[in-house]
Amino acid sequence: MYSEKVMDHFNNPRNVGEIENPSGVGTVGNAKCGDIMRMYFDIDDQGVIRDVKFKTFGCGAAVATSSMATELVKGKTVKEALEVTNKAVMEALDGLPPVKVHCSLLAEEAIHAALWDYAQKNHIVIEGLKEPVNDIAEKSEDEEY
After folding, report:
1. Residue 98 in 3-state DSSP?
2. 126-141, pLDDT tens digit by residue?
3. CA dist., res. 28 & res. 46, Å (int)
4. Is 59 among the catalytic positions?
5. Among this protein's residues, is 33 annotated catalytic?
6. Which of 6, 19, 28, 33 is catalytic?
Protein backbone atom coordinates (compact mmCIF):
# COMPACT_ATOMS: atom_id res chain seq x y z
CA MET A 1 0.00 0.00 0.00
CA TYR A 2 1.17 3.54 -0.69
CA SER A 3 1.65 6.20 1.99
CA GLU A 4 -0.48 9.36 2.05
CA LYS A 5 2.55 11.36 0.88
CA VAL A 6 3.07 9.09 -2.14
CA MET A 7 -0.59 9.45 -3.06
CA ASP A 8 -0.43 13.24 -2.59
CA HIS A 9 2.64 13.58 -4.85
CA PHE A 10 1.01 11.28 -7.42
CA ASN A 11 -2.33 13.11 -7.41
CA ASN A 12 -0.80 16.59 -7.06
CA PRO A 13 2.71 16.40 -8.51
CA ARG A 14 4.95 19.40 -7.92
CA ASN A 15 7.21 21.01 -10.52
CA VAL A 16 5.82 19.24 -13.59
CA GLY A 17 6.93 20.53 -16.97
CA GLU A 18 10.02 21.70 -18.81
CA ILE A 19 12.46 24.56 -18.36
CA GLU A 20 13.31 26.55 -21.46
CA ASN A 21 17.10 26.74 -21.93
CA PRO A 22 17.89 24.59 -18.87
CA SER A 23 21.29 24.55 -17.20
CA GLY A 24 21.11 20.77 -17.18
CA VAL A 25 18.76 18.01 -18.34
CA GLY A 26 18.90 14.39 -17.28
CA THR A 27 16.94 11.52 -18.73
CA VAL A 28 16.99 8.02 -17.28
CA GLY A 29 14.80 5.00 -17.66
CA ASN A 30 14.23 1.46 -16.55
CA ALA A 31 13.87 -0.98 -19.43
CA LYS A 32 12.45 -3.65 -17.10
CA CYS A 33 9.36 -1.63 -16.15
CA GLY A 34 9.24 1.02 -18.88
CA ASP A 35 9.52 4.09 -16.63
CA ILE A 36 11.25 7.16 -18.10
CA MET A 37 12.12 10.24 -16.05
CA ARG A 38 13.48 13.55 -17.35
CA MET A 39 14.61 16.30 -14.98
CA TYR A 40 15.40 19.92 -15.91
CA PHE A 41 17.55 22.23 -13.76
CA ASP A 42 17.97 26.01 -13.81
CA ILE A 43 21.20 26.63 -11.88
CA ASP A 44 22.43 30.15 -11.09
CA ASP A 45 26.01 31.47 -11.13
CA GLN A 46 26.48 30.51 -7.47
CA GLY A 47 25.60 26.87 -8.21
CA VAL A 48 22.14 27.03 -6.64
CA ILE A 49 19.24 25.21 -8.27
CA ARG A 50 16.77 28.06 -8.80
CA ASP A 51 14.16 25.95 -10.53
CA VAL A 52 13.59 22.30 -11.33
CA LYS A 53 10.94 20.58 -13.44
CA PHE A 54 10.27 17.02 -14.44
CA LYS A 55 8.41 14.90 -16.95
CA THR A 56 7.86 11.25 -16.12
CA PHE A 57 6.29 8.43 -18.06
CA GLY A 58 5.56 5.65 -15.64
CA CYS A 59 3.63 4.35 -12.70
CA GLY A 60 2.29 6.35 -9.77
CA ALA A 61 5.40 5.67 -7.70
CA ALA A 62 7.61 7.01 -10.52
CA VAL A 63 5.56 10.22 -10.66
CA ALA A 64 5.59 10.58 -6.86
CA THR A 65 9.36 10.02 -6.56
CA SER A 66 9.99 12.52 -9.39
CA SER A 67 7.84 15.11 -7.67
CA MET A 68 9.46 14.59 -4.27
CA ALA A 69 12.97 14.62 -5.75
CA THR A 70 12.33 18.03 -7.30
CA GLU A 71 11.13 19.33 -3.94
CA LEU A 72 14.29 18.00 -2.26
CA VAL A 73 16.73 19.69 -4.67
CA LYS A 74 14.99 23.01 -5.35
CA GLY A 75 16.92 25.84 -3.70
CA LYS A 76 19.87 23.58 -2.91
CA THR A 77 23.43 23.92 -4.14
CA VAL A 78 24.76 21.52 -6.75
CA LYS A 79 26.76 19.75 -4.01
CA GLU A 80 23.70 19.45 -1.75
CA ALA A 81 21.62 18.09 -4.66
CA LEU A 82 24.28 15.46 -5.32
CA GLU A 83 23.74 14.21 -1.77
CA VAL A 84 20.02 13.51 -2.33
CA THR A 85 19.82 9.73 -2.41
CA ASN A 86 17.05 7.33 -3.30
CA LYS A 87 16.77 6.58 0.43
CA ALA A 88 16.17 10.29 1.14
CA VAL A 89 13.43 10.35 -1.50
CA MET A 90 11.80 7.23 -0.03
CA GLU A 91 12.00 8.59 3.52
CA ALA A 92 10.48 11.91 2.44
CA LEU A 93 7.58 9.92 0.96
CA ASP A 94 7.18 7.81 4.12
CA GLY A 95 8.39 4.73 2.26
CA LEU A 96 7.63 2.75 -0.86
CA PRO A 97 6.58 -0.86 -1.35
CA PRO A 98 9.68 -3.03 -1.98
CA VAL A 99 8.62 -3.64 -5.59
CA LYS A 100 8.69 0.14 -6.21
CA VAL A 101 12.07 0.99 -4.64
CA HIS A 102 13.56 1.19 -8.15
CA CYS A 103 11.46 4.33 -8.75
CA SER A 104 13.41 6.18 -6.06
CA LEU A 105 16.64 5.04 -7.68
CA LEU A 106 15.35 6.44 -10.97
CA ALA A 107 14.82 9.81 -9.24
CA GLU A 108 18.35 9.79 -7.81
CA GLU A 109 19.82 8.93 -11.20
CA ALA A 110 17.76 11.65 -12.92
CA ILE A 111 19.22 14.22 -10.50
CA HIS A 112 22.72 12.92 -11.23
CA ALA A 113 22.08 12.92 -14.98
CA ALA A 114 20.92 16.56 -14.92
CA LEU A 115 23.96 17.53 -12.82
CA TRP A 116 26.22 15.62 -15.23
CA ASP A 117 24.73 17.51 -18.19
CA TYR A 118 25.22 20.81 -16.33
CA ALA A 119 28.86 19.94 -15.58
CA GLN A 120 29.50 18.92 -19.20
CA LYS A 121 27.95 22.11 -20.58
CA ASN A 122 30.03 24.26 -18.20
CA HIS A 123 33.26 22.24 -18.46
CA ILE A 124 33.41 21.70 -14.71
CA VAL A 125 33.93 18.71 -12.46
CA ILE A 126 31.48 18.13 -9.63
CA GLU A 127 33.37 16.20 -6.98
CA GLY A 128 31.71 12.85 -6.29
CA LEU A 129 29.55 12.89 -9.45
CA LYS A 130 29.90 9.83 -11.63
CA GLU A 131 28.66 9.49 -15.18
CA PRO A 132 25.03 8.39 -14.89
CA VAL A 133 23.52 5.33 -16.51
CA ASN A 134 20.75 5.75 -19.07
CA ASP A 135 18.97 2.61 -17.89
CA ILE A 136 18.95 1.81 -14.18
CA ALA A 137 18.32 -1.82 -15.10
CA GLU A 138 22.00 -1.80 -16.18
CA LYS A 139 23.05 -1.36 -12.56
CA SER A 140 24.11 -4.62 -11.02
CA GLU A 141 21.52 -6.42 -8.95
CA ASP A 142 23.79 -6.40 -5.91
CA GLU A 143 24.08 -2.62 -5.80
CA GLU A 144 22.27 -1.30 -2.79
CA TYR A 145 19.17 0.79 -3.42
Report:
1. helix
2. 999 999 888 888 764 4
3. 26
4. no
5. yes
6. 33
